[in-house]
Amino acid sequence: MFHHALEINEPRCIGCARCMKVCPTEAIRIRGGKAFIQGNRCIDCGKCHEACPVDAIFIKQDDFQSIFDYPHSVALLPAVFLSQFPSDMSVTRIYAALKDLGFKHVFEVESSASVFAEAKGRYAEHHADDEPLISSFCPAIVRLIQIKYPSLVNNIMPIKAPLDLSAMYALKALGDRGIPREEVGIFYVTPCAAKIAAVKSPVGEKRSIIDGVINMDSLYNRVYKKIKEQGKSYSFQPSKSPNLSADAILSTLTNGERRLCMAKRSYAIDGLQNVMDFLDKLENDEVEGVEFLELRACDQSCAGALLSCDNRFLIGERMYNRARKAAERERNGEVPRDREIDKYREYLLANANVDKVQPRSMMTLDKDRKVAFQKMERINRLKEFLPKVDCGLCGAPTCDAFATDMVINRVGLTRCVFYQRHLQQKNEITRQECLAAMNAVWGTDRMNDPKD
Amino acid sequence: MHQEYTIIEGDFVNAGKASSSVKKTLKQLDVNPSVVKRVVVALYEAEVNAIAHAYGGKVLVDIDEDKIHMVVADKGPGIPDIAQAMQEGYSTARPEVRDMGFGAGMGLPNMQKNVDKLDVKSTVGVGTTVEMEVNFS
Asked: A residues 253-292 near B, CB within 8 Å?
């Protein structure tokens, strides 16, 4: 079983099917008036979460109090976290608030951006045969390729994402300060659901070294409140040197990896639909000579992440501004603090590799080709009964998905309202049977008269 | 299992419609990805050929448990010398077709490389029929 971060709060779900319609891998069905996520198809991209009008799809996180289980709790912050706050709220203040909330140490995920870039570069030197090489940065993309583009799994670079590299760095750096591993609790502040899933069931690794996950939006609220409490009484001290280099800050945005890679021909593509359109072409060998692909599930990459607390373009702008300031200070000879990671560079590079990513295709109808072939013939016959309007009233997102459900999950054809009408004309179905079929999908309450 | 697609002359925008749809079917049948790739590449080449050279045609695909059989039949000028057309780099594509990135003279040789059986029949002034077969294992 694969861990998924997205779950449905059933009592709250109104069964509106909006999530089912937007799911890029057709992972959602409606049953008994409630949405249901099929785990083997879900890539934790969070499109459903965005589409839900009643916040019934939630992202499970660890209890905040668990940071107090460790004498040395570490907040592992994505660069995008600082850019959630208005620009007049300084990094120093945010750090101070985090310390006040109980974190002993703060590390930024992107401190390992240059190590990540180097690990990819070294891998690329010896794997020209697997080009175009695809970055392992975005976990939703890795999962998308596993289930929908199994022929491209070998193109994914089996390299730890910056989040894992930085966790290793934090452990090592704290260890050097004499803090034993068991006293350190690493808490990743996640901007999206896919990264939670990546931590809880990593691809190509047995287990992650991250001890807990905190959702970015909930931490934003806590930090914001803390800062308001401190008010003007807080004495402001500007930091001595920038935390992250400009390159590191930009690495989470679209083109952030591509601008640093040496490939002659490369693309940076954001947005799941854009990525799928491109991978379809790539799989057909219609695009040749591409060496590197930076693929991100969210529009505007991590600035548009699911748990963002503001508009993706405003966050992107703040990140650019932060990067611009960092670049200026670098030009003036200041050394960004993320260079401290250089001490551990060789250690991190030596441990940056993970196992090859394995396919787990959701496309296959059966492992036995003979059986798969029979199932496909039945699906094709059933499709002829369906209206091809993709209305979703059967509880499946498209007529094609419904036809497949009928064969794989033995769902009845009478769930199709068009087919019901067809049978009614011939007097081959009763009103009760029609109602029962509708109730199976939409629950028993929906066919009642409205309460006055 | 039988599938049919229509090819329209000069419609490069829709080149690859047939091969994409065939790809989806083969994935569902759990055909080895490297075999799927060979089928898709060969069929795509044949589609582009018919779009570039002919006045439209048809793609007929038959899939069974062990193999895929593809026929791309066009109405068009035909190929006067098939042996010559099978050589890499030989091309009669018009300059505007080459400008679109097609017509490098790799079409038929590329098909040959990717399929288990290739049969090209052509009558000058009438049309060309390319018949291809790929075994799944």
From this structure: 280-281, 283-286
pLDDT class for A242, splitting at 50, 70, 90? low
The residue behind tokens 């934790």 is: A44
Contacts of residue B30 in chain A, CB cutoff 8 Å?
361, 364-367, 369, 372
Confidence band, pLDDT 50/70/90 cuts, at residue A237: low
Helix (DSSP H) and strand (DSSP E) numbers for chain A: 17, 11
Instruction: Give residue A445's pLDDT.
Output: 84
CA pair distance B50, A49, nearest whole angstrom: 45
Q: Which CATH number fits domain B2-135: 3.30.300.70, 3.40.50.300, 3.90.226.10, 3.30.565.10?
A: 3.30.565.10
Q: Is B89 on the interface with A (CB under 8 A)?
A: no
Lowest mean pLDDT among A125-129, A196-200, A436-440, B118-122: A196-200
A363 touches chain B (CB under 8 A): yes
Query: What is the DSSP secondary structure assignment for residue A162, as one 8-state letter?
Result: H
Minimal Cα distance from A372: which residue of B?
Answer: B29
Cβ neighbours around B107 below 10 Å, total: 26
Question: Per this entry, what is the length of chain B?
Answer: 137
Residues of B in Cβ contact (< 8 Å) with A282:
none
Tell whether domain A1-60 is in CATH 3.30.70.20. yes
- Calculate how close chain A gets to B16, using CA atoms only, in Å: 8
Inspect the interface and report whether the beta carbons of A150 and B65 lie closer than 8 Å: no
Can you read off the two tokens belonging to residue A58? 């939630």
Q: Where in chain A is the domain with CATH 3.30.70.20?
A: 1-60
Which ipTM did the prediction report? 0.75
Q: pTM for this one?
A: 0.87
What is the structure's pLDDT at B101?
66
Q: Does A132 sit behind a cis peptide bond, omega within 30 degrees of 0 on the bond before it?
A: yes
- Chain B residues in contact with A377 by the CB 8 A cut-off are 1
Report domain extents, chain B: 2-135
Question: Is residue A423 within a helix (H) or strand (E), and if so which, with residue range?
Answer: helix A417-425
Whether residue B41 and residue A380 make contact (CB cut-off 8 A), yes or no, is: no
